[in-house]
C-alpha cells in the first residue's frame, strides 16, 4: 500500500508502462468494437479510463516525489 511512497523510483516506471499499455489497448479495443457493432465497447472504455487515471496518478506521484526531495534538500542546506 505504501510502496509508492517508499519506492517512487520503482512505482513510476512500472505503472507508466502498464498505464500506456492500457491506454493503447483501450483505444484499439474501442476501434474494433465500433467495427464489430459495439460488442466489448464497455470493457475497452473501462481499460481506457483506468489507463488515463493511472497516468494521472504517475504524474502526481512524480511531482510529489520531486517536491519531497526538493524540500529535503532545502532543509539540509
Secondary structure: helix percent? over 70%
Tell me the series of helices and strands, N- to C-terminal: HHH
Q: What is the terminal-to-terminal distance? A: 32 Å
**What is the overall shape?**
rod-shaped
Number of strands: 0
| Assembly status | single chain
Number of helices: 3
**Unreliable runs:** none
Q: Strand share of the residues?
A: under 5%
For the biggest sheet, the summary is: none
Q: How does the helix and strand content classify structurally?
A: mainly alpha
- Rg, please? 17 Å
Integer average pLDDT: 86
Can you describe what's shown?
This protein is an all-alpha fold. The chain has helices at 3-6, 8-35, 41-76. The chain is rod-shaped. The model has no long low-confidence stretch (mean pLDDT 86).
Write the SSE topology.
Elements: H1 3-6, H2 8-35, H3 41-76
Helix pairs in contact: 2-3
Question: Would you kindly provide a brief summary of this structure?
Answer:
It contains 3 helices and no strands. It is mainly α. The protein starts with a helix and ends with a helix.
List the main descriptive attributes of the protein structure presented here.
mainly alpha, rod-shaped, 3 helices, 77 residues
Amino acid at each position: 500500500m505504501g510502496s509508492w511512497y517508499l519506492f517512487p523510483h520503482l512505482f513510476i516506471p512500472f505503472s507508466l508502462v502498464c498505464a500506456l499499455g492500457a491506454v493503447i489497448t483501450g483505444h484499439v479495443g474501442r476501434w474494433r468494437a465500433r467495427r464489430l457493432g459495439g460488442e466489448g465497447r464497455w470493457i475497452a472504455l473501462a481499460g481506457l479510463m483506468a489507463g488515463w487515471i493511472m497516468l494521472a496518478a504517475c504524474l502526481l506521484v512524480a511531482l510529489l516525489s520531486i517536491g519531497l526531495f526538493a524540500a529535503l534538500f532545502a532543509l539540509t542546506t
